[in-house]
User: Fold this.
Amino acid sequence: MKMKRMVCALLCAALSVCLFGCGKKAEVPIEEYVWALESALQHSLDGRVIACSEGYAEGIDDEGVQILSCIMTASDGKYSIVDKTDDLSFAGEYELYEAVKDSASYHLTTNNGHGVAITGKVTYADGSQARTLIVRFGDYTLNFFELLA
Assistant:
């Protein structure tokens, strides 16, 4: 009888932990912001920046970097990345994987494969903060920041 009570208590505790974790909401949800591309990295070659926003380009010496104006938005399990420079768009689906205090991770899917996205906050030396989104597809990493009006 003592063993049954202990097993029951352990199952109740495990269920409580699972239910608590399932109810978490991301502090920086991907859906609540419009994200502007800052830089794109290609890892398969040498990890160099291959594309970036106009503002980010000022700090890069490489003349081969393409200047892009990309926006990412997400809503109701679907996301889109629009490249205003070349009038291209990419779309797919996302699902919240894990939410912790200051960040959240998402699974991304497209017709071409899978990726991950992580939202969070960056705190600078002066104490100011910015919301950030990092997207990884295969050999590419896209760094986005919250688009400020």
User: Anything to note?
Assistant: The first strand starts at residue 35 and ends at 42. The CA atoms of residues 3 and 74 lie 49 Å apart. The chain has one domain: 25-146.
